[in-house]
Prior knowledge:
mainly alpha, 7 helices
Amino acid sequence: LVGLIFLSDDLLQREAFLAGQLEEPDPAVLTMGQIRNEAPLPEFLVPPEEPEEGGSPAFQTDQVWAAYFRHIIQIAQTENSSFLDRWARMEVSLRNALAQERAKRLGLEPSDYLVAQELGDPEADFTDMLREWASAPTPLAGWRVVLRERWNWCQVNEAWFRFTEDELLVYAVRLLLLTQWRRSSEEEAAL
């Protein structure tokens, strides 16, 4: 289950590497061949239907993310992991909220950029975070707003001293967020 959480960062690193934004990925779950798109992704990340010939790379990436979230929620339900289920649904909602906001700002159709909407948390409200994200002075500062939102979500949903698997999963998400924050600090220092 922890590997499924860490896989989300590997997928982000894969996107950044393939877009030329990251030179040295450091995956925890995927192989370097998978990060470089030289080897196939795990079968559960391959969408059930292949994208149409000539489909955009962004659309293909969205299909991978949709497959990822569907797999996570299926595993969470099989393993009775309420935290993993809530985390995946929050991530879907957060991702879609950001995609909608970006699309609106660019004059694009927001529905073209949403992923696995049916899996989102219908009660998720990111209004304040989106306002702060939109007013961030740099993309890096905006990314940190998103990381803080995720950290705060963990605080509300942590399972401290319950001695359950969920407590370990919260720790894994926090470790992942700290790694991403460290990476953002290194990017800032390089500017």
